[in-house]
Design a protein that fits this description.
Layout: E1 6-9, H1 19-32, H2 39-42, H3 50-61, H4 67-85, H5 97-106, E2 110-114, H6 120-126, E3 135-137, H7 150-159, E4 166-170, H8 173-182, E5 185-189, H9 192-195, E6 200-202, H10 210-225
Parallel strand pairs: 1-2, 1-4, 2-3, 4-5, 5-6
Helix pairs in contact: 1-4, 3-4
The structure holds 1,6-di-O-phosphono-beta-D-glucopyranose and magnesium ion (MG).
């Protein structure tokens, strides 16, 4: 039987859909450099750090630039991105997330954030969810990005739980790999085709009940062990 004491949530794609704002800002920057990319390519940037995202876009466009210029470009993109963030409202919290967070609170399950974003705190503040998180591990606090498990391992340690006592909710393939490599229970939020390596995949948090999810996970873990 699982002994779950904490849940750690990714931010973009799990709590809110900030990918659409990343896309607009990255595309504006890419177009200025004479590069274009589609929403399909944008999928590859989900869960990827800011600098790694720029490097991927430059690679797609066959453009090479030095380190200083990269910093200048990521700063510009981030300034545009923050203009969108400043206009976000609590209505943008993805369906079912608030009731799910409340049900965790009622059960005494600790709640953490594990995101690649360096803007996680302003985003959570803007949508009114900051106080729901007992631990916030983000791109400002880790050296190794996902699929490295550092962000989730540090989250577990700050919440004072063992990895095996923690469920990670992630929408990115690399995020699921990070959770599995860290020894957590990995729940994908999105499509089975991308997140099939997770212990279990849910489409979203709509009507999602923690007790029902836990029952399913217990069955899955038993069948993995047998
Ligand atoms: P920032 P997550 C990730 O968030 C996004 O999915 C990814 O597209 C972005 O590049 C990354 O955060 C860094 O974001 O520019 O705000 O530091 O899914 O890990 O919550
Ligand atoms: Mg994500």
């Amino acid at each position: 039987m699982l002994n779950i004491k904490a849940c750690i949530f990714d931010l973009d794609g799990v709590i809110v859909d900030t990918a659409k704002y990343h896309f607009v800002a990255w595309r504006r920057l890419a177009n200025e450099l004479g590069i274009d990319f589609t929403e399909r390519e944008n999928e590859k940037l989900k869960g990827v750090s800011r600098i790694k995202s720029l490097e991927l876009i430059l690679k797609w466009g066959g453009v090479e630039i030095d380190k200083n210029r990269k910093k200048e470009l990521t700063d510009r993109k981030n300034a545009w991105y923050l203009e969108h963030i400043a206009k976000m409202t609590p209505n943008e919290i993805l369906p079912g997330v608030i009731p799910f967070l409340k049900s965790l609170q009622e059960r005494g399950i600790k709640v953490g954030l594990g995101s690649a974003s360096k803007n996680a705190v302003p985003i959570l503040r803007q949508i009114g969810l900051l106080e729901h998180f007992g631990s916030i591990m983000d791109g400002t606090k880790v050296v190794n990005g996902k699929p490295h498990p550092e962000v989730f391992l540090k989250g577990c340690s700050e919440l004072n739980v063992l990895p095996a006592q923690c469920i990670v909710f992630e929408d990115a393939e690399k995020g699921i790999t990070a959770a599995l490599d860290g020894g957590m229970i990995a729940v994908g939020v999105g499509s089975e085709s991308v997140l099939g390596h997770a212990h279990f995949v849910i489409p979203d948090f709509k009507n999602m009940e923690f007790d029902v999810l836990l029952e399913i996970l217990n069955e899955k873990m038993l069948s993995i062990r047998n």
